[in-house]
Amino acid sequence: MTKAALSSPTWSTQTAFILAAIGSAVGLGNLWKFPYITGENGGGAFVLVYLACILLIGLPVLIAEISMGRRGRGSPPETMSRLAKESGASKLWWLLGVNGMLAGILILSFYTVIAGWGMAYFVDSVSGDFIDMDAKGAASHFSALMGSPETLLLWHSVVMLFTIVVISKGVKSGIEKAISFMMPALFVVLIVLLGYAFFTPGFGQSLAFLFEPDFSKLTGESVLIAMGHAFFTLSIGMGTMMVYGAYVSEKYSVVKASIWIAVVDTLVALIAGIVIFSIVFTNGLEPGSGPGLLFQTLPVAFGQMTGGWFFGSLFFGLVVLAALSSAISLIEPTVRWCESRWSIPRTKAAWLIGGLTWLIGLATIASFNIASNIHLFGDKTFFGSIDFLTANIMLPLGGLLMAVFFGWIMSKESVQKELGLSVYWLRLFNWVLKFVTPVAVSIVFVSNII
């Protein structure tokens, strides 16, 4: 344990850490899930609740997880084992780290499949397949992709191969180098698309939909969805931020970095929403069209608009960049654990864990076609079951226990040293993390189970 802590790599700069953490947080949740759940839940009022949940749930747990990682200086199980020993707590806390790693691998197993959809659509857009496409054609196109195990396998494999190669090169030569290109490219593409959206007829309607709250459209279920998404969008509870925190120098401020991560992640989601809804309203499409908004609705819009080939390719290129940056982060905690705990060389660990994850992903691929009639949890396919298990049980449970450990078990001296806050802000943070966050996460956790 001590050896692992002493040999832990570090980020070159605080900017490198922030970009890597943003890369982990910004993903399909921002570009795919946030717009469609906002569309389904009435727009502006939902966005306000979501922002409040980011502040009261997401940010405090994010700060706690990164701080715990920096203090423990190891993989998630090693970090929790060391912190538990330091705090005189039960040795069983190391299982919290195991829960996060396992959740990350399970999520990655289907995340690479969905990221593959983005790659396939990027290639299709560049090839001009969406030109003059109507709603029926878009639905048929998506159904054809889902019904082809061979095509899904190809793109799943490409995404996983990229992830393994980057991770095998380590923190500075692999993660930092990839993120230093991918994140600026992502932001440039997003700004270009926002500039395009500004000149569309639906831009004003998009702003009104997102930022003029109509609380009559808000339901109790909408609030729970906002709470849950605010928690999951920041990559909390899966060990990623904990292991990224292990690479952070003590001279950097965890609180400032966490605020930057939360702000940029939220801005990306909001800008993506503006872009998508501008296109939707301009083309007379339905904002509440659900999960198909990205892959079945937007191709119709891109196919009909002037310059749709170019902007459609940019958009799905953006989806690919966001997905790849998140995929990298999901595998890192387990690779680090193999490397530091079991002395397995990083390259070997990356191929071992990546290969295992790739195999699990085959079941997700089959869920959309040849094994669509096989169910695990109730009427859920393998993909639906793994998504439910991770998003509704493992991640909120992990976040809840992190808040409890950091707020109630770690010593005040350790917390103060990691946060470096004034007395007033430290008291406010402790109060939120001890009382507000656990209650909110518990509500999400229990409601999802029920």
In short:
The chain is mostly helical and about 450 residues long.
Topology diagram in text:
Layout: H1 2-6, H2 14-25, H3 28-40, H4 44-72, H5 76-87, H6 94-126, H7 135-146, H8 149-168, H9 171-198, H10 203-211, H11 220-232, H12 240-246, H13 254-282, H14 298-304, H15 308-341, H16 346-367, H17 382-409, H18 412-419, H19 423-449
Helix pairs in contact: 2-9, 2-12, 2-13, 2-15, 3-13, 4-5, 4-10, 4-11, 4-12, 4-13, 4-17, 4-18, 4-19, 5-6, 6-8, 6-15, 6-16, 6-17, 8-9, 8-15, 8-16, 9-13, 9-15, 10-13, 11-19, 12-15, 14-15, 15-16, 17-19
Question: Would you mind describing this structure in some detail?
Answer:
The chain has 450 residues and is mainly alpha-helical. The chain has a single domain, classed as Orthogonal Bundle (Hydantoin permease). 77% of the residues lie in helices and 0% in strands. Helix 2 crosses helix 9 and helix 2 packs across helix 13. The radius of gyration is 21 Å and the shape is globular. The chain starts with a helix and ends with a helix.
